[in-house]
Amino acid sequence: AQSVTQLDSQVPVFEEAPVELRCNYSSSVSVYLFWYVQYPNQGLQLLLKYLSGSTLVKGINGFEAEFNKSQTSFHLRKPSVHISDTAEYFCAVRNAGGTSYGKLTFGQGTILTVHP
Amino acid sequence: DARVTQTPRHKVTEMGQEVTMRCQPILGHNTVFWYRQTMMQGLELLAYFRNRAPLDDSGMPKDRFSAEMPDATLATLKIQPSEPRDSAVYFCASGLVQAGITTMNTEAFFGQGTRLTVV
């Protein structure tokens, strides 16, 4: 079984401030990791992904995340946020092996609100 | 521009009626997911398929929900009979997944969702 925990349900920040959205996971097999963003009344869009290689991955819109295997974390960061970053962010893990490889599990989401 | 297509985008139906939601995955993808999104539960995995075979449908109420892939270009999610508590946004997603072969993997691409309201 696998699970994803997003530690903050809501994160309010001011424009141009840095932000970190936290994600921890548990899994009995190796996993791939993803961050998705959902704008109001829209589907999910991929921000970035970690499959292998460098543990620091960069995505779209200036976001980056670092995979920490020992802490089973994959926190999302942005050094300076914009009003347009206001959205809900989802961390997800996908089994890379095992009998249920490919199964994609999401966290509960973190609502990021950027204030002027 | 390849994308996952879901129809209908919106559906309002009366309690007890049958509802069918359709999804056209991206050509070449071998894995299809159905998720339900509600305010209370967030994103719940209902079922997922690989190479058209159901791998896990444990998240789906079996008495009223059914998911199928009649062919590689169509996935369906059916609710019969529908109930008000089924009101939610239903998302379909597809991806290419090969166990242990990182270079052959893609992320899951999501459709725009079907917003279902059961009154």
How would you classify the helix and strand content of chain A by structural class?
Answer: mainly beta
Number of helices of chain B: 0
Ranges of chain B where pLDDT stays below 50 over 5 or more residues in a row are none
Largest sheet of chain A: 6 strands, mixed
Please tell me what the overall shape of chain B is.
Answer: elongated
Number of helices of chain A: 0
Estimate percent helicity of chain B.
under 10%
Return the string of H and E elements of chain A: EEEEEEEEEEEE
Question: What is the residue-mean pLDDT of chain A, rounded to a whole number?
Answer: 93
Explain how this protein is built:
With 116 residues, chain A is an all-beta fold. Helices cover 0% and strands 54% of the residues of chain A. Chain A is built from no helices and twelve strands. In chain A, strands 2, 5, 6, 10, 11 and 12 form a six-stranded mixed sheet that branches. Chain A starts with a strand and ends with a strand. The mean pLDDT of chain A is 93. Helix content of chain B is 0%, strand content 52%. In chain B, strand 5 and strand 6 form a beta hairpin. At the A-B interface, strand 5, strand 6, strand 10 and strand 11 of A face strand 4, strand 5, strand 9 and strand 10 of B.
Q: What is the topology?
A:
The complex is a heterodimer of chains A (116) and B (119).
Chain A: E1 3-6, E2 10-14, E3 19-21, E4 23-26, E5 31-38, E6 44-50, E7 56-58, E8 64-68, E9 73-78, E10 87-95, E11 104-106, E12 110-115
Chain B: E1 5-7, E2 10-13, E3 19-24, E4 31-38, E5 42-50, E6 53-56, E7 65-71, E8 74-79, E9 88-95, E10 109-110, E11 114-118
Parallel strand pairs in B: 2-11
Antiparallel strand pairs in B: 1-3, 3-8, 4-5, 4-9, 5-6, 7-8, 9-10, 9-11
